[in-house]
Specification:
heterodimer; A: 268 residues; mainly alpha; Cytochrome Bc1 Complex, Chain D, domain 2; 2 domains; three-stranded mixed beta sheet; two-stranded antiparallel sheet; 11 helices; globular; B: 206 residues; 9 helices; 46% helix; 1% strand
Chain lengths: 268, 206
């Protein structure tokens, strides 16, 4: 954040922005983003994730090639744009990260704790295997269209719950998703806020996660984005891999239906 | 007989557990209540049990089809207005320098904060205030020259205080937190925010 603010200030000082703070601050941010667009370090996450996907691991020394992410065993192409979805073998709706938890437990033999205790990389510590895997699998849907038909009743139910959660206003500050994501052209500090009630903005935003975060020096997943939204909303901590966040992801994914998926992106 | 007693006891326990779940998720749909109860954990100053107790305004505003012009909306606003506490001795205007610090700080009441974190107001997240601060949000209106444009009369002071104390009294389902009503800021902190906006010497009013 500090570097980002400094960059904006430098751009201001150069005279590129001067009188109308709003427009020019925004254009400064856009210039910064253009500078970032060329080389995305998330490429490294894709390569590492691919390695992990095909490598034998866990007590069973099995690779994840037996894992069915919704389009058949071992298929990674195009699965992300159809998730979350209902999985008949477990009788419930899962997002990508819940499904990976399931596969790493059932196929590779890890304990639940082993595959859920370190979902988000901490500063200065080793990168979470989950972020590698998710980035690889998500990248396998790049250029495809979001396709969330909600055909199964359990999918429709998850969507309904996710919608209720999106509109929920609670906690000490009465915040909810809608506080920041229901109007056009709004910002928190300098951060522009997508309006998730607008299909075009929902598609663009949903289609940009996971993303390499310059501020973190890491790729962050949609699960992490929502975990951190909850923190800022003054909500309690969301338990990683629980159905709560999956419901919200289902609502957001459906809101982005039909959009071209374009991740991993790069963000400040 | 013992078996029957066991069964009765078993169902009684289930019934009580079921009831407590519903009670904890009061004002939420039962399904969402269970989802939240299972998917959230208390951490730092944020407690799941408190979080799940929506108050009438939160319940009203959580409806995706909310009608903010309804009779219920009017009743909730009137009640909010009646509950506002004003400072003693009409002492509304505190230290604008301290107010600026509070307006800049987004700390407090997040699950990564501690119980003794001093809460900020985080006003700049949504409002332009001093013109020197460029990193301001636009969810709320600009407050630059707040007092200069509105004057410094007792009516302006009382209204502004009330708006910070409980914005729901003036605009139901407003995005702005109820800083006084929910105890986010102390009376002293609110006075300092008032100073930032309504002290003629504050840089906001230059």
């Amino acid at each position: 954040m500090f570097n980002f603010v400094r960059l904006v200030l430098v751009i201001s000082a150069l005279g590129l922005t001067h009188t109308y703070a709003d427009d020019e601050t925004t254009s400064g941010i856009q210039e910064y983003r253009d500078l970032l667009a060329d080389i995305n370090p998330a490429e490294l996450w894709i390569l590492s994730g691919e390695d992990l996907w095909f490598s034998a691991a866990g007590p069973n020394e099995a690779s994840l090639e037996e894992c069915d992410l919704g389009k058949g065993r071992g298929v990674t192409k195009g699965v992300y744009v159809e998730l979350p979805r209902y999985f008949p073998d477990v009788g419930k709706v899962m997002d990508l990260e819940q499904r990976l938890i399931h596969c790493r437990m059932v196929i590779q033999g890890f304990s639940r704790d082993e595959v859920t205790s370190y979902p988000f990389t901490k500063r200065g510590e080793e990168t979470s295997a989950i972020e590698f895997l998710v980035t690889f699998i998500a990248s396998e849907s790049k250029g495809m269209r979001m396709n969330i038909p909600l055909e199964h009743v359990a999918e429709q139910n998850m969507f309904d719950l996710g919608k209720q959660l999106f509109y929920l206003r609670a906690g000490t500050h009465d915040f909810g998703c809608i506080t920041c994501h229901s109007g056009d052209n709004k910002r928190i500090r300098l951060q522009e806020l997508p309006n998730f009630r607008n299909a075009e903005q929902a598609r663009k935003t949903y289609g940009s996660w996971p993303a390499y975060r310059v501020s973190a020096g890491e790729v962050r997943t949609m699960q992490h984005r929502l975990y951190d939204c909850f923190r800022q909303q003054r909500f309690p901590e969301a338990i990683y891999g629980d159905d709560l966040i999956t419901a919200l992801i289902m609502f957001l994914a459906k809101s982005a239906d039909g959009g071209v998926y374009d991740a991993p992106a790069m963000k400040r | 007989m013992a078996f029957v007693r066991f069964r009765v006891g078993f169902w009684a326990v289930c019934f009580i557990l079921g009831l407590s779940k519903i009670a904890a998720a009061d004002n939420l749909s039962p399904e969402l209540g269970v989802l939240l109860e299972e998917g959230l954990r208390s951490k730092g100053p944020v407690k799941v049990e408190q979080f799940l107790q929506l108050d009438p305004i939160q319940k009203f505003c959580s409806d995706s089809g909310v009608n903010i012009h309804s009779e219920e909306a009017g009743a909730l606003m009137s009640e909010a207005l009646e509950q506002i506490q004003y400072p003693d001795d009409d002492d509304y205007v505190g230290d604008w320098r301290e107010g600026e610090r509070i307006a800049q700080s987004g700390k407090g009441l997040r699950f990564n904060d501690s119980d003794d974190t001093i809460n900020g107001g985080n006003c700049y997240a949504c409002h332009q205030i001093r013109k020197e601060e460029l990193a301001y949000g636009t969810l709320g209106p600009s407050l630059y020259q707040y007092g200069k444009l509105r004057g410094y009369s007792m009516q302006v002071l009382r209204y502004t205080w009330a708006k910070i104390f409980n914005p729901q009294a003036f605009l139901i389902c407003s995005n702005m937190p109820r800083y006084g009503h929910k105890g986010i800021l102390t009376m002293g902190q609110m006075r300092d925010i008032m100073g930032l906006l309504l002290d003629p010497k504050s840089p906001v009013n230059e």
